[in-house]
Predict the structure.
Amino acid sequence: ARLKWDFLDPVRYSSIKRSVSLLQSQELLLSILCRSQVLEAQMVYAKLVENQNLINTYSSIYKKNRFELEAILGQFNGGIISLGDVAQQQTLLLNQLNELLALVALQIELASELAVLIGMSPGSSALPSQQQIHSEQWPLTLDETIQEGLRLREEIQLALSDSKAADLQAQTMLNKYLPVFSLSVNGYGNYSDGLFGADIADSSSQDRGFTQATDLSIGLGLTWTPFDGGSYLASSNAFKDQAKADLLAANFQRERVGRQI
């Protein structure tokens, strides 16, 4: 049997730290997707409430104009007004009906979209339970809001985490030029039991015996690749450039957060 332990491996430490950074990046990416889903659902819900208010307003106007059309028809039958006045009111009423039907169609589309965003079963619709969106006064100042956004915005943290992972990978590639020290243990054992120097037919218990042999060795190993033609160095420089690009992306996200707030 042989056991080997690389007790001093410069690549291992940076590789583990890079894996941790990549895991953090995946967690941040999941947070971004979840927040985007919630934000989109909130925006669709706000559109639903606004559109429902428009439907109520247009429905009220349409009903009033229908009553007015009936009055105009009565005046026309009495010879008070001309046919042109009736046609003008009918055209106005038809345009309002078309606008109302378009708003209803949009309401159905938004309700279906919201149902999909909140995970309802296919074919379902989600309608707002209230006609007003209540909002409270924001407790933070503008500067405090910007600082809080910079601290919590996942896009900034994701870019920084990606930059750290790329920088650690660059260090990992350079560490491959360093030696790796290992400890190895080799063990050997053999056991035999049987007849020695006698025929099987004429053997007795006095002819039986056994042999046992063991061997154990411990060694210190060294693995070192001092030069590979510059391949690891080139890869390291590429990852360093990627780390710089991710830092620029983080700065861009900071400026973007400030503009959005």
Remarks:
- The radius of gyration is 40 Å.
- Strands lie at 2-8, 180-195, 208-223.
- The CA atoms of residues 63 and 93 lie 9 Å apart.
